Amino acid sequence: MAYFWIILLLFAVLRVIHCEISPFGPENEENYKEYYNYLALTRRLHSFVERYPRISNLASIGKSIEGRELWVMRVTTHSIMDVPGKPRVRYVGNMHGDEAVSRQVLVYLIEYLLTQYGTDPRVTALVNYTDIYIMPSMNPDGFERAIEGDCKGNSAGRDNAKHVDLNRSFPEQFDATSTLANDAPEITAVIKWILQRKFVLSGDLHGGSVLASYPFDDTISHIMLGVYSPADDAALFRYLAQTYAQNHPIMREGRAQCPDDPNEKFKDGITNRAESYDVKGGMQYFSYLRGNCFEVTFELSCCKYPLASDLYTEWNNNREALLTYMEKVHIGIRGYVMTSAGIGLPDSNISVAGIDHSITTWIFGDYYRLLLPGTYNITASSPGYHSKTVHNVKVNEGRAMLLNFILKDLIEEMPLLESPASAIPTTARHQVLSSQGVSTLLSKVQQHDSSYHSYLDMEQFLHRISTVHSSVAHFYSIGQSVRGRKLYVMEISTNPGTDQPGKPQVMFVGSMHGNDAVGREILLNLVEYLCLNYGNEPLVTQLVNTTRVHILPFMNPDGNEGAVDAQKYFAVNEDLGGGMRYSIDQNTDLNLNFPELSYARDFVQPETTAVMNWIKAYSFALSASILGGMIGIKYPNSVGSLDEAVFKSITNAYYMENPYLAISQPCQEPRPLDRNYINPDFSAPKRIDLQTWAYRNTDTLGVSIGMSCDRSPPAEDLLAYWKQNHRALLKYIQQVHFSVRGRVTDIQSGQAIANATIVVEGSRHQVHATSTGRYWRLMAPGIYQLHAFAPGYAASVMTVRVLETQVEQVDFWLTQEQLLQSEGQMEEEEFRKLVEGLSSALSLEQLVQSLLPAGTLLYRNYKERSEFLRGLALSFPHITRLYGLGHSWEFRTIWALEISGSPESLRPTEPKMRYVAGVHGNAAAGPELLLEFASVLCINYGWNPTITKLIDRSRIVIVPCVNPDGRELAQEGRCFSTAGLTNAHSVDLDTDFLYGNISVQPETHAMMDLIEGGGFTLSVVLEGGSLMATYPYDRPTQAVQNEETLRYLASVYVSNHPLMHLGYIGCSDGLGSVPQGVLRGAEFNSHTGSMKDFSMDVDACPEVTVYVGCCLYPPLQQLLPLWTEHAMPLFAMLLEIHKGVSGVVQDREGQPVAGAVVRVNGSLLVRTDTRGYFHTLLAPGTHQLQVQAPGFQEQLTQVNVSSHQMASPIMIQFTANSSRFAQKVELAAAISIATVILCSLLVWHFRSSKFRRIRDHVRWLHRRRDDLHLEAILSEKSPLRRVFLEESESDDDTFYLEHH
Ligand SMILES: [Zn+2]
Questions:
Q1: Residue 216, preceding bond cis, omega within 30 degrees?
Q2: Is the CB of residue 349 less than 8 Å from the CB of residue 381?
Q3: What does the CA dihedral 1015, 1017, 1021, 1022 come to, rounded to 10 degrees?
Q4: Where residue 6 falls among pLDDT bands split at 50, 70, 90?
Q5: Would you call 1194 a catalytic residue per the annotation?
């Protein structure tokens, strides 16, 4: 954690020292000799923005009654962006149209800020760190009517055009029923603005006196004078008011000597507003109590509308006060409230003990709490999270101290994660579960009466429970049965009956068949059990705290009407003819009463409809129907393999506690509850069971749990069934917490996107975000692509790796499509210029030298490295994402840090860069260089515009240490030691990247997953022990396609390094000199199983290995010089990913063609994505592209690639479809050649078991490639064919060439 503070401190200090220079230099155009009417003001404000576009932005927040714009000038760096951590301050002037001084003074203030920026360090700092909003006139209509020289406001102009006094018409403080004035659009606009921007500090400028007055503005009695009405922050308000007054030469005297009341005196020029003059419906209190903002009102001059000749004096009187007051936005404490995943929590509460006024966080989870120096206890809270209090926070004078809060999700309380060392991956989930002390459960079993409940009994029971346990139980009805009985549901949870954002919901249904009493009785027991044991039994307590459990015990209350006792019931039923009727009224089996097709539902019973509506309304993540008449657990029909794994996993959780059910037993039921049950009436619409219907139509995944063959066993047996199942039911509920979960949020507004759809690739089951944007999706361990969609938003995709031992949080930040499009074009052009500009070595060097250094260089062990990465991710939550790729043998996490402008969503054309180090643990400099690199990127984001844009347009994945176990063994200063070269099982990881290798090392496996995840444009790996770079391939027999490009990419790194390109190594590795410092991998150290070969084969991603220096583990003092040498090449590679060639492939109608194969120079293959887009890096020069897609005639085109230009997308359009005949010939050829390949593969396959590794390799490759278009496969130069031939022909021994 220490590093994190150091970085922030550095950041702060360096930002003060570094001053951006305004490109225009100081200007001064004001003559201070005239008032600006609306048109003049509008022109003047526009001229500012034209002149200072980088630090100003003009917007209208609405219109006055007469249609004048309510202009607001925003002055700050990145003036069109919301940068987390920048507090917002505002000035509003001319709210009373005839109080005109403020209107002009605020224009002068704007000019002063803009012209002094870059010249005056104080103004520069203010504009750099503060988001300043200035509204010169809130009442432009009134001003047009006011008359210059009217000191007392005798002429019209105070009110707006509908005679509304704007400072008397805000919703009233002491009258909850007061509403907004209809005739004041100015107020409506300002209120919206106040609420949206959540200002931290504001000043409201008036005239008619010289005075600063602080809240409250009024008292409940509204006595005009003399009643002091203090706010909870009274001391702070007095200080803020004084700040202004003390810096105003007249105000500070406290004796304005205004002609109206020449003897009026105010100590220090400040007053409590209500005490001096009761103002009802003012803006000041509204800002404080509803707007999260500290506001003070300033009266600038005795004369409301003095002659213009006084303006210069007024400006001089107020300038210092205006500046100093704004600077006070930086006092107190500030920081972020976030989840442990580093996601900011908007609208969290920040409260200070002893002050009864809380403020809330803004859209990034950032907050600013102005406070006077002192010691405070600060609490952060957010719904769905545990609150956190930090005691004895010392607030000093000067800049706000940073205090971040990390709130634990209520759900994180679940005992999911044990210490990693004790977790055994395959069984950890169950092991953790059974570690809970559920064995003592029956110690507090409910007062079991061992008898069946009739409908009336049940009604009474539920009433009793919800009364006695009202804090955790709440019951409601979801509808009625055919005979008008209510369908009761009991909700068990803390705060039952209320929407609780962080809690997933589980539902149970019982007695779908009227005579099915087991389900009902078990569920009634469950209700009572949860209530009685809440607060006593840890697992129950945790479940009730973190889950909403909804139980519908009796779905078919008509079905056993009058059957109080099971025996009696059977007697009745036998009379009816075999006990086969499930619902007496309708003769309907409600579990097979769910419609397969939404429109064909004539047969659907009212009970079924009620349940369907209920499930749709609640978005349960997990459910179960409890039945008799079968033994075992059934999940829905025809689910995909992805969901089958989920169902197996939750089913197994149940079986673990009740193995009896795992042995499915046939029941002697006349009509077993068979999911393959065929409705005898074939013409009728198909009916499906509840869980199948829910799987296909709702967010719910669930199973049917059959507990006994006997639907209504003798009452005395019920306890035995309960004992057998109760523990399993608890475990089942707990499964909901293994969901992948997260939030879907609008990236601009920070608002939750309700009803966003989450789709897992490969499953037809969709889930939706709740009204608070949350979603849950149960998943079995594996790697998945999650997509989020919402109408009007660009879709977003995220990769998630679900582990048995870990709960995954995947948050989506969606961007509105409109915004993307309009912003897109401008940005594109700007970025193109930037890439071009940086492509000269000189300007890149200038950039690197101008960056804020992070200065984090030192050697870190695993723990320190992990902490450092976590700190970095927490400090920069909006551009970073930290996640584990997997674990080493010794269970150290292999971290990946992703840096990107939008870490949660993938922009379609964003190139992806991978930086990797520590493959060999003894090459210790690489990891540290990458950590420094990551830090420099982060701290310069939002500060250096070039870095900001580069990060916004790239996705950078940094894996600082692949071999953390080996790294722990390496020793500082040992330049040639092999200690730590291998992993803990003595495997050199760079020989382990063999496809399909079953016994692959865990570290290798983690990297393979990342590489296979795909989409990388370029990869750089830092090694040690030499001074040069190598490019693919490392394996000796591989002929290199596009060698020119690969060599070029390596040379980009080398040529930006001061020494490497000279080619003289001088290390003791036997290499005298290497021409240009670049070698093909096999020429340097020929071996198989290398990561770079894998990257080429699997993802067609070129990987350059850089040997950063002769010494593997140089002494600490050499780290800084090393960084100085390597910073520029590292940035050069980041720039490089934006070059090469990119394009879009379309058909004749202009529709994108996905999966088209683009072949570069007859060899390298690239495929278009779903938008028809492709991108690949190429050496500068002319390249031939062949584009093929099934059903189209091949297109040929030629591209020129430049070393200093961004890839500009080319358009490839198929002009004609290929003829049918040609297709047939192609197909025939394809089939015959494929057969030949297959035969030879088979022959080879059986040749010998000795070459199993190779065989796996080819099989695996085959799987990888067979989705490439057949034409490509058939090509002479296709990689599959090449690899296949080579490997089957090559001498087997070459495959086992080991280096070292
Ligand atoms: Zn006023």
A1: yes
A2: yes
A3: -130
A4: low
A5: no
